[in-house]
Amino acid sequence: MKVKTILVSQPEPKMENSPYARLIEKEKVKIDFRPFIHVEGVEAKDVRQQKIDLKNYTAIILTSRNAVDHFFRIAEEMRFKVPDAMKYFCQSEAVAYYLQKYVVYRKRKIYVGKMNFIDLSNLFKKYKNEKFLLPSSDSLKVIVPETLDKLEINWTRGIFYKTVISDLSDLKDVFYDILVFFSPSGIESLLKNFPDFEQNDTRIAVFGNSTVKAATDAGLRCDIKAPSPETPSMTMALQKYIQVVNKK
Fold first, then answer.
1. What is the pLDDT tens value at each position of the chain, 248 positions in all?
2. Which of 105, 83, 85 is nearest to 95 (CA)?
3. What region does 207 belong to: left with phi over 0, alpha with psi -120 to 50, or beta?
């Protein structure tokens, strides 16, 4: 079946000339964006109940922009002035650059990984005497605590925000040719919102092995998978698929 409509389970990109905009123009498809999950901050009193005192830490481990936002939000709520000497260990350049929203980048001690969390290992070894705080959501990739424990550094996890399933009830009678997912939480949201969901001719596009597993475990058929050597991005995988099926 030809593809005319796509629903991406994420917020719409803010950049004008995004890969999705180019996909819409080139393949003449309709793409809607709707977050299937959203983040809600944990209150400062709940962080205190986790026995976390921000002044006890000399380094912050940041795995996402959400982690950045909620660390500084909690610091403000606790009236904690983050010292200039604080070290920041960022999983990627995107996270590191996002720090500029809160700190003067060139005046801070910021250490950046390549992309995956494990890429930070050598930096953690180099600064193993620091007291690390990991602001995270209530769901955390297993590789993170496994890596930190293996390195035997002094680290503490703090749940600063939570991933919450969005209300999608208004989509009950809306149908798309392709649904696009980027996390197991997105799959969970689909099934929680629509427990009687039947895939039928709907194509499911998934990004990452954990999302593939979540979809497969839920009995869904994964028609489009990314990344791959040929299609490292989701938009490339979608375009390749659309070009094949829409020619029939």
1. 899 999 999 999 888 889 999 999 999 999 999 999 999 999 999 999 999 999 999 999 999 999 999 999 999 999 999 999 999 999 999 899 999 999 987 767 999 988 789 999 999 999 999 999 999 999 888 899 999 999 999 999 999 999 999 999 999 999 999 999 999 999 999 999 999 999 999 999 999 998 999 999 999 999 999 999 999 999 999 999 999 999 86
2. 105
3. beta
**Residue 83 CA to chain centroid, in angstroms?**
28
Listing from the earlier edge strand, what are the strands of the sheet with 203-207? 30-33, 5-8, 178-181, 203-207, 222-226
Domains of the chain: 5-36+168-245 (3.40.50.10090), 40-163 (3.40.50.10090)
Amino acid symbol at 229: P
What is the CA angle 40-43-45, rounded to 5? Answer: 160
pTM assigned to the model:
0.79
